[in-house]
TrEMBL record:
GO terms for molecular function: glutathione transferase activity. Belongs to the GST superfamily. It comes from Rhododendron simsii. Keywords: Cytoplasm, Transferase. Its main location: cytoplasm. GO terms for biological process: glutathione metabolic process. This is Glutathione S-transferase. GO terms for cellular component: cytosol. Coiled coil: none annotated. Is involved in the conjugation of reduced glutathione to a wide number of exogenous and endogenous hydrophobic electrophiles. It is found in: Cytoplasm, Cytosol. It comes from the Eukaryota. The keyword Methyltransferase does not apply. Its EC number is 2.5.1.18.
Amino acid sequence: MATRQVLVTEGEAQEKAIKEAIDTLKIAEEGMLEFFPTTPITSEDQLGVLDIVICSVLGSYKAIEEVFGAKLIDPERNPLVFSWLEAILNLPAVKEIRLTHVETVNFLQILRLFAPIFPVITTEGEAQAKAIKEEIDALKVVEEGMLEFFPTTPITSEDQLGLLDIVICSVLGYSKAIEEVIGVKLVDPERNPLVFSWVEALIELPAVKQIRPSHEKSVAFIRFIRDNLKAPKA
């Protein structure tokens, strides 16, 4: 839970999640000898369910450190967890199926861009309704403020692309996929005409269309986030 929160929060909430994850790992360090022998596994034949769970949850710790600046696993603070995880990650069968470090970093960087709208995707019921309202209200503020940062007409070529365009496209370019998955229209052409026209202009640029995933892949990605990072029910 705490590790998930590290990925989907920002600011003080993320700092709290990092501390909770580190504290949890301290407890895991103290308790591992009760569940494991004193030496790391050396072959796939020794892999158990708990090994697989540990690898699935903590196997991206180096990428998390690179993207979020959070050192969750420290060889001095967590020597047993560290040695066990490294032994698992270096097994040929595990190395063959897991993402490379670069692929994991790229994936986490995409997740980081989604942090502001994660509650919309990963919650349900009242929590989701609140998150949707907050996101719609935030987009209203963006709509009102966009004229301060952009000219009054959408860009028409890649030469006009700026950093903010890229960020907007990275996050709001998935709005139609989010709408399909959760059934809520975040960016509405009537409520957010400027934001809507800007996003549409961006995603129609040839250079952007060439590198961004198809609608089908975007929907699959949003479903993956929702299914794997869904907040637990209170």
